[in-house]
Amino acid sequence: MNLLNGSGYLLYSAILGSGDWAVVVSGLQPELTWRIGLGMMGAVAYVRAVVLSAGELARVVENDSVSSAEIPGLVLLAYVVGSTLLVAASAFNPIGPRLILLSGVSSGFAAMAGLTAIPRLVENRVGRRGQAQARSLSIRDGSPQGLW
């Protein structure tokens, strides 16, 4: 999620002309060219972060640690919980409630939206593998399967 947030921030700064990176390029000439470059760099980094994340989850499915049917639920959980935590954390911003919307929602739900593409990318790579099974802790063999 950190990769999505960081690369999404580059894109956000370039498009909206606000944020730290917008301040960095504001004095450079021609500013529009720098903003376009910043946006392209952010977009490429964002797509690469999504593809990298999908590749890592596909590897977990290929190792039979998780079935492909479980991936959408795991990704949705990470998206909702992670984004909600970012919005909740922004509520403590002393600058004001406007910044809660700008920083919390944009860095939370908007920047993490790429997570929603991951289940499809994983399925395209590995197909439907494994069975959606109820996983439980096995005291007998000591395997912590229920943690994932």
Mean pLDDT: 82
Termini, distance in Å? 18 Å
| Overall 3D shape | flat
Q: What structural class results from the helix and strand content?
A: mainly alpha
Helix content class: 55-70%
Quaternary structure state of the chains depicted:
single chain
Number of domains as seen in the coordinates: 1
Low-confidence segments, ≥5 residues, pLDDT <50? 131-148
For the sheet with most strands, the description reads: none
Walkthrough of the structure:
- This protein is mainly alpha-helical.
- It has one domain.
- Helices cover 66% and strands 0% of the residues.
- The chain has six helices and no strands.
- It has helices spanning 2-16, 20-26, 31-62, 71-90, 97-110, 118-126.
- Helix 2 packs antiparallel against helix 3 and helix 4 (71-90) packs antiparallel against helix 5.
- The longest helix is centred in the N-terminal third of the chain and has 32 residues, at 31-62.
- The protein is flat, with a radius of gyration of 19 Å.
- The relative contact order is 0.15.
